[in-house]
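Sequence of LysE family translocator (Vreelandella nanhaiensis).
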Amino acid sequence: MNSEWLILGPAALYMMSMTLTPGPNNVMLTASGANFGFKRTVPHMAGILGGCFFLFSSIALGLGVLFERFPAIQTGLRWVGSAYLLYLAWKIASAPPPNLKGDAHSVPLTFWQAAAFQFANPKAWVMGLALMAGFLPESGSAVINALILAGFAELIAMPCLAVWAGFGMAIGHWIKSDTGWRAFNVIMGLLTAACVVLILR
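Predicted 3D structure, token representation.
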């Protein structure tokens, strides 16, 4: 292995610290784990990983430069992402207890919904920009290097995301009453809505 790839160790520590700390994805994973269980939250987690992989690779291959030249594109994504996040926050806050959920309320976030959201997620952008600026080797194929580093980053992120979904599942086992479920969903909805501040600041 090229000696430049020794930086994968520090890159792994960086991804762990960023992925384990709270953010829009982790708040929604906690809510999903509690309401739907770990297994039904897997597509949501896979969407985050797939979306971040594509975002990080795109940043390394020139997307960040495109946004610098055309800031209106990024501004538009921020507003769309904020609107979508508020919609998700409302769905979480208004969700009934699991035992009262009908078919219309029983679908967690899909792979594609979670993947698309990463392009409007400010934390994902910060992670991707810092990752590619600080740990991408300069020698060799830019495309291959970007794909390797982005893939490695998501490999590290996978168990970190699972921790949040598992945490939500544990909370779901702990909540026994319908009143407790409604209070939990409202709190998680408010926390999700509060993440809009990060996007629009």
